[in-house]
Amino acid sequence: MLKSPTILLKQIEKAIFPNDLHLKIVLTGCHNDCAKVRMHDFGIIGMELPQYEKDRCVSCKACINYCNKKSVGTLRLTLLGRTRKKNPRLGEDFIKWVNAKRAL
């Protein structure tokens, strides 16, 4: 889960506004996308890094894929979603497993 979404949102606000851009920006600390992040122009989803636990291993190899990528981030950024009535569209993943500093 994202530990300080308010601080990150304030930093995003300083970077983007004041501009004439009309953007819908959503941030959620829930990796289940409870805030419908993918339905907005720019979305940030807080995620946790996978942890290997020998007792719970079912040989799905998720931990191996994680180690191969050497993931170190905590966020997933999505772009280009929209909620217009005629043609709604889910946002696409732009960056997966990025830390807050690089996201800005």
TrEMBL record:
Coiled coil: none annotated. It comes from the Bacteria. InterPro entries: 4Fe4S_Fe-S-bd, NO2/SO3_Rdtase_4Fe4S_dom, NO2/SO3_Rdtase_4Fe4S_sf, NO2/SO3_Rdtase_FeS/sirohaem_BS. PROSITE patterns: 4FE4S_FER_2, NIR_SIR. Residues 48-78 form the 4Fe-4S ferredoxin-type domain. Keywords: 4Fe-4S, Iron, Iron-sulfur, Metal-binding. This is Nitrite and sulphite reductase 4Fe-4S domain-containing protein.
